[in-house]
Design brief:
Blueprint (H helix, E strand, L loop, with lengths): L5 H5 L12 E3 L2 E3 L3 E3 L16 H12 L4 E8 L19 H11 L5 E7 L11 E2 L14 E2 L5 H18 L3 E6 L4 H6 L14 H19 L4 E9 L8 H13 L4 E6 L20 H8 L6 E3 L6 H9 L5 E4 L1 H5 L3 H6 L14 H8 L30 E5 L3 H12 L3 E5 L7 H6 L8 H13 L3 E4 L6 H7 L3 E4 L3 E3 L13 E4 H6 L7 E5 L3 H12 L3 E5 L11 H11 L4 E4 L2 E6 L4 E5 L2 E5 L4 E4 L3 E3 L3 H4 L6 E4 L9 H14 L1
Parallel strand pairs: 3-4, 3-12, 4-5, 5-8, 6-7, 8-9, 9-10, 10-11, 11-12, 13-14, 13-16, 14-15, 16-27, 18-25, 19-20, 19-25, 20-21
Antiparallel strand pairs: 1-2, 17-26, 22-23, 23-24
Bound molecules: flavin mononucleotide and iron/sulfur cluster.
Iron/sulfur cluster (SF4) binds next to α10 and α12.
Length: 656
């Protein structure tokens, strides 16, 4: 049995006593009740799919953060089931040495390391896809899979067993079988993807046969002592999919077949409720599924899904809804989440904001996964273990306290520079504070609150209601001026805009409340800012028409976040037009063509401009003739989304 030093488990935690209680999982003991769920992070493997130092250091950083158990995501068991190109490949023994290196790197941190084993089935990205039946995935993965022949099914089950044996031989502590999220095993389970009429299709017994054979094969090859968990869906949330009733029948069968824990998740590609929900979805959205499964088995059950607050995690254990809590994105945003919770430093947790942009959106774009609020993800192997003090501390003036300015000020101060941060507004946050106002967007404030708490503990001279002036420059006498002054909506040169009888304002002015919107509003723009504003106005009872000159809406959002926004926009009060060319604004409306059809709309009292943004860089003029070096970061450099703002702020903070 894997042993921990006794003193660690014995340490009482007064803040969250249950989260930090050890738990036995199969033959293992986890030092706490926290599991990092598998995330196909899409970096850190070489061209053969062997783990590199990049993935090892990324995992090691999470182990250093104190999580009890953690999983590498997306370990492919067979070449036909590769979900995405840059994930670990486990179908040959030559994967073992690099896995061993990872296991050895993690071992000293007293975190149990596991691999999730998956076969993507019809949700694989390539053309060699196989599935129980030749039915395409409802979303994302293109192409029709080939239906597996009867004789191929045991080959697939054996691929799981072989991959598990390789993980065991490499020294990993456990594996988790991916039986959820619409991948191969879950395709066998769900009637809408399994139309077979042999012993693997039709009845409940037949549809669950493949999963049980996978488990049997793993047990045969790895023995009874190796710890094997199963990830299963409590609900597919899709027409004709797998549901809770059947999940509750399956759970005891998995327990009898030797599963050591059950990890209950939900959703498939194209489902109503997404597996990786965005900020629009309530925290802990799948806990009820884990709770129901827990009532049917004695083995530990893991709950997952937007569990980011330690109070909620502790509550799940206290109310016996689950035995362990899985964190996914919270550990991307802050690998130190467990240690910080353990020591009661909750305000120092860098929070996931549920945007899905840097992580799953990037991954599905076949880019390396990252995190909007944590630019270190995937760069752990390049960065020093701790922030390095500046060789020569300098006087730095950061202008603008939006996310870019806050991130820069924090990093500069951490490194020992003398930092003055000024903002002409009365509060920090810049445009992000406004972006957090529309319905469902308030989680954006979490990252601002994090930075505010960080700055409060650092020697940053924060000056609010303070515009940058020649006098300020004289007084601070900065050696480095960091302009994080953001951007503002641009006024387009469209005929009639200056003469219209409608009120004309910008999205910034309307959200800030300095410009009121009437009952009938035209919004010019189809990006995230325009759409969340439209949602906000509709929620306040206004009629809104959105005019988007592009073919698509909110392309600057992650697809997961956009999905929930789109559902909200369908609720009424909003009409969307795309491919719009405005011929002229009228006294009370607009004359435009949309997808080639010309029309006039009248009866409006307000036009809100939200299409394009321009950088605010005027403050740079004041620095002319001064010896200071000037740097532009975030939107002041070029209007883009939050990920750039925070990463550029931190990057500059590290560089100076
Ligand atoms: C980038 C990314 C990749 C993911 N890949 C996997 C995966 O390979 N296997 C899996 O079971 N879940 C995967 N997930 C889902 C997570 O394990 C988790 O269930 C989900 O993010 C919800 O938990 P959270 O709200 O704590 O992030 C992934 C999530 C993200 C963000
Ligand atoms: S990119 Fe957004 S959703 Fe993903 S982990 Fe980071 S903050 Fe969370």
């Amino acid at each position: 049995m894997h042993r921990r030093p006794k003193s660690i488990g014995a340490m009482a935690n007064t803040h969250f006593p249950l989260l930090f209680q050890p738990i036995r999982i199969g033959r293992l003991e986890s030092k706490n009740r926290l599991l990092m769920s598998a995330m196909s992070i899409h970096f850190g493997v070489d061209e053969r799919g062997h783990v590199t130092e990049q993935l090892t250091r990324y995992m090691e950083a999470r182990a250093q953060g104190g999580v009890g158990m953690m999983l590498v995501g997306g370990g492919g068991v067979h070449p036909t089931g590769v979900e995405l190109p840059h994930l670990p490949a486990l179908w040959e023994d030559d994967c073992i040495p690099s896995l061993t290196k990872m296991a050895q790197a993690v071992k000293p941190h007293d975190t149990l390391l596991g691999m999730q084993l998956m076969h993507g089935g019809r949700q694989s990205y390539h053309d060699l896809k196989v599935a129980p039946s030749a039915i395409p995935a409802p979303a994302l993965a293109k192409g029709i899979p080939r239906a597996l022949r009867l004789d191929e099914i045991p080959v697939m089950a054996a691929a799981f067993g072989d991959a598990a044996r390789r993980c065991r031989d490499a020294g990993l502590d456990f594996i988790e079988v991916h039986g959820a999220h619409g991948y191969l095993i879950s395709q066998f389970l769900a009637p809408n993807s399994n139309r077979r009429n042999d012993r693997y299709g039709g009845s409940f017994e037949n549809r669950t046969r493949f999963m049980l054979e996978v488990l049997e094969d793993i047990r045969r090859k790895c023995g009874p002592d190796f710890t094997v968990g199963i990830r299963m869906n409590g609900e597919d949330y899709i027409e004709g999919g797998w549901g809770l009733e059947e999940a509750l029948r399956l759970a005891p069968l998995l327990e009898q077949a030797g599963a050591d824990y059950l990890h209950v998740s939900a959703g498939v590609y194209g489902s109503r409720q997404l597996t990786i929900p965005s900020m629009y979805v309530e925290h802990g959205c799948f806990i009820h599924l884990a709770e129901a499964v827990k009532r049917t088995v004695a083995i530990p059950v893991v709950a997952v899904g937007r569990i980011k607050r330690p109070e909620m995690a502790e509550g799940i254990l206290r109310d016996r809804k689950a035995d362990m809590v899985a964190l996914g994105r919270s550990l991307l945003a802050d690998p130190q989440w467990p240690n910080k919770v353990k020591h009661g430093s909750l305000r120092s947790i860098r929070p996931c904001i549920g945007c899905c942009l840097g992580c799953i959106h990037a991954v599905f774009q076949l880019e390396p996964g990252g995190c909007v609020v944590n630019p270190d993800v995937g760069r752990e192997y390049l960065l020093p273990q701790a922030v390095e003090p500046a060789a020569a501390p300098r006087r730095c003036l950061v202008v603008g306290s939006g996310p870019a300015g806050l991130a820069a000020a924090r990093m500069l101060a951490l490194r020992g520079h003398a930092v003055t941060l000024c903002d002409q507004q009365a509060e920090t946050g810049g445009a992000l504070r406004l972006a957090a106002k529309p319905p469902g967007r308030s989680e954006l404030m979490d990252i601002l609150n994090y930075f505010a708490a960080e700055l409060a503990g650092l020697a940053v001279d924060l000056r609010l209601n303070c515009a940058v002036t020649a006098e300020l420059l004289q007084e601070v006498d900065p050696e480095e001026v960091i302009l994080a002054t953001g951007s503002l909506p641009d006024t387009p040169m469209i005929k009639g805009l200056l003469r219209t009888g409608m009120q004309v304002g910008t999205v910034t002015e309307v959200l800030a409340g300095v410009q009121a919107a009437g009952a009938h509003v035209l919004v010019w723009g189809g990006n995230q800012a325009a759409l969340v504003l439209a949602d906000d106005l509709a929620a306040k009872g206004k009629n809104v028409v959105v005019l988007n000159r592009r073919d698509h809406f909110a392309e600057d959002m992650s697809s997961n976040d956009r999905y929930y926004l789109r559902e909200r926009l369908k609720r009424g009060g909003i009409v969307l037009h795309k491919n719009v060319q405005i011929h002229s604004f009228l006294e009370d409306g607009v004359d435009f063509s949309s997808s080639g059809r010309r029309q006039e709309l009248r009866g409006f009292d307000t036009v809100v401009l939200a299409d394009t943004f321009v950088s605010l860089r005027e403050a740079a003029n004041l620095t002319k003739g001064r010896p200071a070096r000037v740097h532009f970061i975030g939107d002041a450099k070029q209007p883009r989304h939050l990920m750039y703002a925070i990463s550029e702020g931190e990057e500059l903070g590290r560089a100076l």
